[in-house]
Write a structure and sequence with these properties.
alpha/beta, Nonspecific Lipid-transfer Protein, Chain A, Rossmann fold, 2 domains, 3-stranded mixed beta sheet, 17 helices, 12 strands, about 40% helix, elongated
Length: about 450
């Protein structure tokens, strides 16, 4: 990218242009345009940049995503602090707007990370940034504060899941499943794919009537209800979210399954006893556990699982491990205060150390990218309702978070695996082939 900045030709000019700009603001916009043009020299991605006065910087002719920087002070902060994370606050507060496919926005991250500016260029950008005004205060709403808690603590879980049941209901499927669906095709609806996922989990566990199932991190109770209703299992589900528990218990009562489904507020580390359950399942929970606590987590599952039983762990992995990066800092600051991901090889190693034999491993990475895009579309379609149920800042944050995740799953930086395991040196209740899963 290079050349002379041009006025924006976006269709909705009222959102991206100002009718009158004071001379000082005009000068600031020119300085900001020069800084950004220098930084993005050579960028060939799908994102266009527009300034608050309507100046459109050189970029793709047909961008998938357009970023409007309303406040030149944002550019000042970016250059002086040399940190992209504060841009999240600027977005939450409305100093930055994003129009179009937000997933494309993450094209910028590898480009920026690979920048190698000369000392002279950096000095010039620094001096230019000092000429810009300090950032303004924008009135979209307060940002979302961070909460730092112990791994998988009730405080940190509540921070994410107790936003509002009504908020999640806007964009989740009717079963209220906040984990990746299992798609037959790209044309399948999210609701159908989530029901297929519930049934797929039960088939992988080879659930039979009367068997006991422990659901660690049971969420809003969808899997527990499905296992009881369709497979005759007796289910004990635990969660650390009061909001999820309230909704789940109401669903159990409505389904008249109180004799087969018990949901309670409990930390998995407080579960007592040995060999209590025929099956143990955990879906989308172990990301909160923390790598240092894998031995406790998998050890607890192994202790509670009966001989001849099966354990299924469904969780997200990271191909590089949980290194300090823009994405990991963002997730820990705004989304999962205790979130920590690692390689699938580390997960497998921890399970084997806990005494498990790994019987079946399946990657559902592409399914999660598809799921996230369904969620994003539903969230945008129900934006007014989502904002009423939470806040505008929360709505913006979840759009950004899920768009980034969709990009990382699509690119393969994130993965999600279902691992079926049993006790080592045990007689495993599995057929010789997997064909029963698809019958």
């Amino acid at each position: 990218m290079g050349g002379t900045p041009q006025k924006s030709d976006l269709a909705n000019a009222s959102d991206f242009e100002s009718d009158a700009v004071a001379p000082t603001l005009k000068n600031a916009a020119e300085i900001a345009a020069g800084i950004i043009s220098t930084i993005l020299t050579g960028y060939q991605g799908r994102v266009a940049i527009v300034l608050g006065d309507g100046t459109r910087l050189p970029g793709p002719e047909h961008p998938r995503c357009t970023v409007l920087i309303r406040d030149p002070g944002v550019v000042r902060k970016l250059v002086l602090k040399r940190d992209f994370l504060p841009l999240v606050e600027d977005y939450l507060h409305g100093a930055i707007e994003v129009d179009g496919d937000m997933e494309a926005l993450f094209d910028l991250e590898p480009y920026i990370s690979g920048l190698n500016l000369s000392l002279a260029t950096r000095a010039h950008l620094f001096s230019q940034a000092l000429r810009l005004p300090r950032p303004q205060t924008w009135g979209v709403g307060k940002g979302v504060p961070a909460v730092v808690g112990h791994r998988n603590s009730q405080t940190s879980i509540a921070y994410h899941y107790d936003v509002s049941n009504d908020f999640y209901r806007v964009w989740l499927d009717p079963e209220m499943l906040y984990s990746c669906a299992y798609f037959e095709s790209e044309q399948q609806s999210l609701a159908e794919a989530q029901r297929d996922k519930l049934d797929y989990l039960c088939r992988k566990l080879r659930l039979k009537p009367g068997q006991t199932l422990l659901d660690i991190g049971c969420g809003w109770g969808a899997l527990a209800l499905w296992a009881a209703r369709h497979y005759g299992a007796r289910v004990h589900g635990i969660t650390l979210s009061k909001e999820q528990l309230r909704h789940g218990q109401a669903r159990v009562k409505e389904a008249r399954l109180e004799d087969r489904v018990q949901l309670e507020l409990m930390d998995y580390r407080n579960l007592q006893g040995q060999e209590k359950y025929d099956r143990v399942v955990s879906v989308g929970m172990f990301e909160h556990v923390g790598i240092d606590n894998f031995s406790v987590y998998f050890g607890t599952a192994a202790r509670l699982l009966k001989r001849g039983g099966l354990f299924l762990n469904h969780g997200i992995t990271n191909n590089t491990g949980w290194v300090r990066s823009l994405s990991s800092r963002f997730i820990n600051r705004y989304i999962f205060p205790d979130g920590e991901l690692t390689r699938i090889s580390d997960v497998c190693d921890a399970m084997q150390r806990a005494g498990f034999e790994l019987l079946d491993i399946e990657c559902l990475r592409r399914h999660y990218a598809m799921t996230l895009r369904h969620w994003i579309a539903a969230l945008k379609a129900g934006s007014d309702e989502a904002i009423r149920a939470s806040s505008k800042a929360t709505y913006r944050l979840w759009q950004l978070y899920m768009s980034g995740c969709a990009n990382y799953f699509e690119q393969g930086e994130l993965g999600v695996y279902q691992i079926v395991a049993g006790h080592q040196h045990d007689r495993q209740p599995l057929p010789l082939r997997r064909s029963d899963l698809y019958t």
